[in-house]
Amino acid sequence: MSDTKKFLFINRKAPYGTIYAWESLEVVLISAAFEQDVSLAFMDDGVYQLLKGQDTSGIGMKNFSPTYSALGDYEITKIYVEKESLEERGLTLDDLQHLVWEDEDEDYAEKDSIRLVSRAELGDVMAEQDVLFNF
Amino acid sequence: MGSIEANGKTYETDEEGYLADLNTWDKDVAEVMAKIDDCELTESHWEVINFLREYYEEYQIAPAVRVLTKAIGKKLGKDKGNSKYLYELFPYGPAKQACKYAGLPKPTGCV
Amino acid sequence: MSILHLVNKSPYENSNLNSAAAIMKSDDTLLLIEDGVYAAVKSGTASAKIAGHKVSVLGPDLAARGISEDKLVDGVAVIDYAGFVDLVETNDKVQSWL
Predict the structure, then answer these.
(1) DSSP A43-94
(2) What's the CATH superfamily of A6-134?
């Protein structure tokens, strides 16, 4: 498609204190259905969205963390996580969910979706987009 | 809000006929929902409905139709993973109609 | 006269925790709830701000966010909703840093 645009969704909020994280995920899924080139970035408190082992049964809210694993099915294969934000919060990639996508051209081989980038590299990623969405 | 009767039980639905609470779902209500649309549920329908319930259980969302088609193709074979096959089973739209019978909310991004 | 200080925002997002920690007296207790619980993660830079204070965190909010108890600063008490009520009762006043 010639009118495909590069969309980057920038997620900067923790998952349950506000509705931003879930709203972002819904808009991401909708825009991916329109076959755009969608990437996600997680920085600042947004990195908390990807923590594994979330269990919301005690707070009466929907646990939407399993939905991040569906992003590969929506052909979202570029998930940027900012290194400085993780480090400041005492987190490493091992604390995050392991997100993958399946490459149909290589017999559904699983490939990592998460790319650890520095703040400067994330700036480069932002520069090459057509549209930036902030949540 | 509306409701559906099946086998003496009442199931609450939203204004478009989707179940208000997916935990109240059972096969009886799926059959009744299908009957309202003049649709007889066969083994082929159930394959898709069960697939959708498993998908929701794992990812907490109802998949978009493009995602559903691809995933069905992978799980049940290429002859079933195409829109022609799925639209023949669910003429009102596979994501919309099959999700309704499966007790799921309407797929995100589906209008 | 003791005060229960409630912080429900992430320490990386605003300065509520700084204000609470600066004002707290030795008899006071800090209770971290909702996004406030991130302050109790030992390896995070914000954990320095709660050092030296009596600190509790709400367990259901920790679990929701995927933070296991072994990641917390030593000495932090993990409590449930009943423990929350007890803290409100045993302190003379409650200050919510909204």
Answers:
(1) -GGGGGGGBS---GGGTTS---GGGGGGTTTTT---EEEEHHHHHHTT--GG
(2) DsrEFH-like (3.40.1260.10)
